[in-house]
Structures are given as C-alpha cells and as structure tokens.
Amino acid sequence: VQLQASGGGSVQPGGSLRLSCLSSENILNINILGWYRQAPGKQRELIAAIDNSGESNYVDSVKGRFTLSRDIAKNTVYLQMTSLKPEDTAVYYCSALGHWGQGTLVTSPA
Fold first, then answer.
1. Is the pLDDT of residue 74 over 90?
2. Mean per-residue pLDDT for 97-110?
C-alpha cells in the first residue's frame, strides 16, 4: 500500500487544519490506519487510529480536539484538527499495513 499525507501548514493557536491520508489500497481492506506525529527532539507517537469499521480512538492529548473521518470512495482518511496548540507542532504521518506516508508539517507557533 502507498500512503500520501497532505494538508499541513502553519496556523495560529486555536486554529484548525485538516490532514488527508490518501491510500492506494481500498481503505476497507486496511484493518487499522494510524496517524502519528513527531515533534522536534521527540519520538514519533501514535495519536489517533481508525479501523475498517470506522471506529476511531485517540490519545488523551488530542481527544476532543482531533477527529478522524474517512471517504471510502476516495480511499482517504482525514484528521480534522481544531483548537491547535503550540505543542501540536510536529511532522504528521499516516501509517497502515507496515507502510508509511511521507510526513506533513504542522506548526502552531506560540
């Protein structure tokens, strides 16, 4: 599977962004697709995941602010990010079936 993440950018704290992860594989055939992020000087962490039934889970730091959704026809999973904070600044990646998309940079400068 090939994954392509996009949608990053710079946004003021409190703002919103929507990231996209386009899959070359039918996303209904992907058991779990995860969104990860890696902040400067920190390890990559899993922040949200969605399974092929559409059920999603989030880490506490983004719960209530980030929302996963999907467009099955477009084989795309979206990560809607709201109320962004400076600590959300990171490179964001999507991953599935052992494959990684290229990262997309999100900055929310203090």
1. yes
2. 94
Provide the 3-class DSSP secondary structure of residue 29: helix
Cα–Cα separations (whole angstroms), residue 64 to 82, 83, 86, 95: 9, 9, 17, 22
- Residue 86: phi and psi, rounded to 5, are -55, -35
Q: How confident is the model at residue 110 (pLDDT cuts 50, 70, 90)?
A: confident
Q: CA-to-CA distance for 34 and 50, rounded, in angstroms?
A: 6
* pLDDT value at 11 more than 90: yes
In terms of Cα–Cα distance, which of 59, 57, 4, 58 is closest to 27?
Answer: 4
Paired with 70 in beta bridges are 77
